[in-house]
From TrEMBL:
Domain of life: Bacteria
Alphabetical list of Pfam families matching this protein: FGE-sulfatase
Record organism: Polaribacter butkevichii
Protein name per its UniProtKB record: Sulfatase
InterPro entries: CTDL_fold (IPR016187), Sulfatase_Mod_Factor_Kinase (IPR051043), SUMF_dom (IPR005532), SUMF_sf (IPR042095)
């Protein structure tokens, strides 16, 4: 789901944080002094799960009828072990971060026209002040008369005042929803949370390794049977996007742990909300990979590319959301991948974090 946000005029430039570390050198020998890190005693952090190192098949499987060209060809990757959150970061966890840091998310910040116009064609007229207000994308629950499934703008709306504390806009709240995934988070916000928590976003390969769990080449996080979808993931039930019959009891987003965990104890690796990764999204990336070579801890494409949005940087998101349906994106599959612009959020995108033993031992 690639949103071209420029027409809405709410692009907010990402901030990059560069941390430069220097090893001390003795004046006499000018040799680098390194301190060994003992990772033997690192315990699994509370709320996280250890994903053992393994080699597995990344990308679309031959028997996956919903596979898209950007997921092909499948290729072997080897990923070192790491810790990952057992569930998506929740409203409660994000509240704790905000209380400790006073952080203000992108969706809450005043919009600076002088900054926005730098990313727009020269001569673009300034819109009315009433439009230049903070907000975010929300799903249009009243979408009717859908003409073409290619025009996703028919079921999305830019909502002034929508943010992580007000997921449906002014008047809404997250009261009583501490155990729901936090949404309306831009990548900059997720990275700020990661820095505070001594975590980072997963690579796409790490995410797929975690979703596979003890498997090596499965289509879904629960196995290979599509008929088990409703029992294992919060996705759209009914006719997308105009009718959600909600047989599972959740019309839209659901609390964490509402569905069974995968075989290593991870919840919602399919459905509920999309999850961010650190990889750049490039629809042609897999075609550049030699299928005869096992990639070691890949970190994705060197540059972003999406034909419908060629000049905008996008990052890979994984896992699908409560809006996924077989007739539309079918992104409840492990190999499914879509792009997201880093400067915006929506009510169906969240994140979970990872950590390595080396990170935790420091």
């Amino acid at each position: 789901m690639n949103f071209n946000l420029k027409p809405f005029l709410f692009i907010v430039l990402s901030l990059s944080v560069f941390v430069v570390s220097c090893d001390k050198k003795t004046e006499k020998e000018k040799t680098v002094v390194k301190t060994a890190i003992n990772t033997d005693k690192v315990e699994t952090p509370k709320g996280m799960v250890w994903v053992a190192s393994k080699t597995f098949l990344m990308g679309a499987k031959n028997e996956d009828k919903y596979a898209m060209p950007r997921e092909k060809p499948a290729h072997k990757v080897a990923v070192d072990g790491f810790f990952i959150d057992a569930h998506e970061v929740t409203n409660k966890q994000f509240k704790e971060f905000v209380a400790a840091t006073k952080y203000i998310t992108v969706a809450e910040r005043p919009i600076d026209w002088d900054e926005i116009k730098k990313d727009l064609p020269a001569g673009t007229p300034k819109p009315a002040d009433s439009i230049l207000q903070p907000g975010s994308l929300i799903f249009n629950k009243h979408a009717k008369g859908i003409v073409s499934m290619e025009n996703y703008g028919q079921w999305w709306v830019w909502k002034l005042g929508a943010d992580w504390k007000h997921p449906e806009g002014p008047g809404s709240s997250i009261e009583g929803q501490d155990n729901y995934p936090v949404v309306h988070i831009a990548q900059e916000d997720a990275l700020a949370y990661c820095k505070w928590a001594n975590r980072r976003l997963p690579t796409e390969a790490e995410w797929e390794s975690a979703a596979q769990g003890k498997f090596e080449d499965n289509i879904y996080s629960w196995g290979n049977k599509l008929e088990d979808l409703d029992a294992n993931a919060n996705t759209w039930q009914g006719k997308f996007p105009t009718e959600n019959i909600s047989e599972d009891g959740f019309e839209y987003i659901s609390p964490i742990k509402s569905y069974p965990a995968n075989n290593i104890g991870l919840y919602d690796m399919a459905g509920n909300v999309w999850e961010m990764t650190s990889d750049l999204f490039n629809v042609n990336y897999y075609q550049t990979i030699d299928p005869n070579v096992v990639l070691q801890n890949p970190v994705g494409a060197d540059k972003s590319y999406t034909p419908s949005n060629p000049y905008q940087i996008e990052y890979v998101m994984k896992g699908g959301s409560f809006l996924c349906h077989a007739s539309y994106c079918a992104s409840f599959r492990i190999s499914a991948r879509m792009g997201m612009e880093p400067n915006s959020g929506s009510d169906h995108i969240g994140f979970r974090t990872v950590a390595t033993k080396e990170m935790l031992a420091k």
